[in-house]
Every structure is written in C-alpha cells, then in structure tokens.
Amino acid sequence: MTIQTMALIGTGVMGMGIAQIAAQAGLEVRLFDAKTGAAEAGLAKLKATLEKLQAKGKFTEEVLNEILARFKILDSIEEVAGVDLVVEAIIENLDIKQSLFKQLESIVSPETILATNTSSLSVTAIASNLEYQGRMAGFHFFNPVPLMKIVEVIAGLATDEQVVADLLELAQRMGHLGVRTKDTPGFIVNHAGRAYGTEALKILGEGVTSVSEIDRILREGAGFRMGPFELFDLTALDVSHPVMESIFNQYYQEDRYRPSALTRQMLAGKKVGRKVGEGFYKYVDGQKINEVSAQEVPDVRTFNTVWIRTDRAEDADLLAAYIREQGITLDHAETPAQDSLIVLATYGEDTTTAALRFGVDATRTVSIDLLTDFAKHRTLMPSIVTEKNYIDQAHALFAKNGHGVSVIAESIGFISQRVLSMVVNLACDIAQQQIATASDIDQAVKLGLGYPYGPISWGDVLGADRILLILERMLANTGDQRYRPSPWLQRRARLKLSLLHTVAV
Ligand SMILES: NC(=O)c1ccc[n+]([C@@H]2O[C@H](COP(=O)([O-])OP(=O)(O)OC[C@H]3O[C@@H](n4cnc5c(N)ncnc54)[C@H](O)[C@@H]3O)[C@@H](O)[C@H]2O)c1
C-alpha cells in the first residue's frame, strides 16, 4: 500500500514534527490530541515555523498554502476512520498506549497501519491486545524530526513484512532514512548511544580527571560534537538516567550497559542539568560558568633525552619524528639512559602496567595516547610514581606549537581509547544480535547521534586490531565483563576484514 493519508495522535513535540514532514511530502494529515486546544496550539506553532521557512525561500507561498491545506484538526478520535496510517506520539506509558490502540482498532479499517513513536517500550507489548497484531509497527523518529533525517521502523514479533516495507517506503518519501530494526530495548540508536555516556561516567567515577577535561578530550581529540557531560546536561538526567537503568535491566543486568551511582545521586539531588541551572556544570543564562580551563603548560627550558617504546612501529616513527622536529635528542639505546624521559605509546593499559611490561623505570615514564589523530588534542598519562619534573617535560614537549594537552591520572586505558572502543564494541554487538544490518546500524547512529563516522566504520578508521587490543587488555586488567570484545569484532579483527563485513551466504 502507498500511504497517502495519516492521522497523528498526540500533537506534542514529536507528533507535530512528524506531521510537518508528512504534510511536506504531500500526505493528508489529521491531528488529534486528548488535551483540549493542544492540536490547535501545535498547528499554530507549526504554521509559524513553515511561514519562516517560506520567508527564507525554502518554498513558494503557493506551496506553503498547499502544505497548510493538508492538515485537519479532529474533534473526536472517531474521525480517524478512513486513513491509511495512524501514528501515535502520546505519553510514554504502556497501559495508556495499549488502550489507545485497542480503541483505534475498533475505529479504523482492517487495512490501516498502526504505528507507535515509542522510544523505550516494547512494540510487541503495545500491540499485544490487538485483534490483528500484524498491522502494528514502531515508527521511531528523533527530535527535532525535520532535521534528524532518520527513523527506525521496528518490527514487533507479529508485525507483517508488508507493513515494514510500507513504512520504509513512506520514510523515504518524507526525506528520511528508514532503518529496519528488531523490537529490542532501545532499538538501534538509543541502544548504541549507551556506550558514550556510561563509559565516561565510569572514567569520572574512577577519578581519572575532571568533567571538563573528559569533555575536552572527547570533543577535541576524539571528534564527538559534544562532550558526554555537556550532553547529559542538555538531555537532563531525569530523562537519561531512567533510560540507562531501563536498558541495563531490560538486558538483565548486562555489564556493558551498567549505569552509574553518580547520576542516580545527582538525580536524587535534583541536579539534572542545564534546565535547572546545574548538572555536571553550573549554568547562568544557559552558559556554563564553571568549566575548568585547559591545563597550563609548565615552563620547561631544558629537556632530557627521550627514550621511546611503543606497541606499534608506526607510533614509534611518528613520535621520533615529532621529537626530533622539536630539537630534542632521542635516546636510541636498548635500555633508557639514567635520566632519559621515557615515553610509551600503549593501548588499553595504565602506565604502571606498561612500564612493568617494557621493564622501564616507572618514575620517569609517561604514556601518550595515539589512537586518535596526533595532530589534534593530546593526552598524557604518568604513572602513580612518575616524578613531577618528568611529567612537566612531557607536557611541555607535546604542547609545543600551541598544542592542546591533557595530563590525566592513571586509568585502565586512555579516555578516548576507553570510550571509542566501547562505542565500536557495542555497535558490533548490536550487529551480532542482528538487531539491524551492520550498514543500517552504522548509518542510523551517525545520523541519530551526530557522530563523525558510523560506530562500526569508526572502528575501521581507528583499526579493528587496536580496538580489540584495547578491549582485551582492559578485560584482562580489570576482569570487568563490560569490556569483553564482541565476537563480531573479534572475528573481523583477526581476519583483518572490515567491521562492516557481513556473511555472504
Ligand atoms: N521528545 C523526544 O525527544 C522523543 C523522541 C523520540 C520519541 N519520543 C516519544 O514520542 C512520544 C511523544 O513524546 P513527546 O516528546 O512528543 O511528548 P509531548 O509531551 O510533547 O506530547 C505528547 C502529547 O500527547 C498528548 N496525549 C497524552 N496522552 C494522550 C492520549 N491518551 N490521547 C491523545 N493524546 C494524548 C498530550 O496532550 C501531548 O500533547 C513518547 O512516546 C516519547 O517517548 C520522544
């Protein structure tokens, strides 16, 4: 069926966003909201938005009038009869959604598709009281709908293939990428998005460095658009903490999704984020007022010779070339001279462990993170016994030419390494669970979360072998099952295949 007419139940933020793109794609859109005046208010707001777009030259006045003529506000829910599709975007409550769909089924024809925009409930459960459950699917958009050009089409246990196909086709007509998703907690995007925040919280909980420094490293070094704590403050913990708990519990306390006691406490203390003026940062007029400034570069005039050891030959070449360019002498001996600064480039390891592995003096050792682009922000990790004089030398050396440097406390891996390996690993595990195809997961998360790459291709960009090494070492070091590498990642990394590789037969 080609869907031409749609009814939207619940004309709030999401409902009106969906209504907008549907009407712009030429669909007739009927609006219904249980709250008196809500549909009128939603449509008035949308009209103002569309008029602004028209004034900016996005479309002609004639087109504007055509779009507006496609809307009809309903006085009673019975008037949805005759539409091809009903999309529900009401309150996120299973009982209320179930009874709404039961009521809808008694009004619409047997061919009408029923869709829910739920972000956290089971589509199968919402459909479970229907006479004909095959007609119901999830149609999960992201806020703001017109800008977030992605929609998850969720097949519940009983959903007909034709219903999925019709919704995917409609998504395309509305200018969105539709991705077919299994009915699992968090679907694709909200599920994959768990890794970023939870690992950042774990790092913070271990006292590795400050909120500001973690945000800075992940923004400026790793390339995320926002730091995880800036993002938590924007989303607000009254929304995100329950989602973290819900996904963790829906997967029966799977360690990969383990939430943090830090955010539960902040939620209890009502420090939920920007909207209340305080979360991880304090805000005045929406601006952060207590961000810790970048660490000051120590004034070091004389440098000792530098002795380098790395896990990968190319890392040693890169470091040696950089150090030579700074006019500093390299120590090429088999073992470091008595006062050489020891620089290690390692993966998934703290500096104490790395110094012991390389058999060098930990009091003169500083590790550097080379997972992300060396030309961007640099992160250094001294051991718990490294002398200040050596930390200062390393800091000044890698900050030359005005480079941003963060010096962090010992951690089971560098901040970017921990977070990126968890992002890639979780996306690979979602592929392993066949929640969606690897390529759909990649595109959906890139569009839905604004990452610079899809989370699976990102693994290819960074090197699947390095991601695997980081995870294996962190697992060995901690015994924490959250770091266990997904079989999807392990096989592809060992066979030197792209992480997007799918089985041919
Ligand atoms: N806000 C988001 O970022 C986002 C993203 C994806 C999905 N969702 C999901 O979309 C749905 C709607 O979220 P929202 O943010 O637009 O909410 P909202 O509060 O902005 O709007 C909900 C609207 O539904 C109406 N409503 C409530 N119960 C109703 C009922 N029984 N019958 C008819 N109308 C009813 C309310 O009056 C309100 O106008 C939820 O299921 C939510 O989980 C939200």
Automatic annotation (TrEMBL):
A Pfam entry, by short name: 3HCDH_N
Record GO biological process: fatty acid metabolic process
NAD found in the keyword field: yes
Domain 3-hydroxyacyl-CoA dehydrogenase C-terminal: 186-283, 413-494
Residues in 3-hydroxyacyl-CoA dehydrogenase NAD binding domain copies: 6-184
Gene Ontology MF: a single term: NAD+ binding
Keywords assigned by UniProt, alphabetized: NAD, Oxidoreductase
Phylogenetic classification of the source organism: Bacteria, Pseudomonadati, Pseudomonadota, Gammaproteobacteria, Moraxellales
Protein name from the UniProt record: 3-hydroxyacyl-CoA dehydrogenase
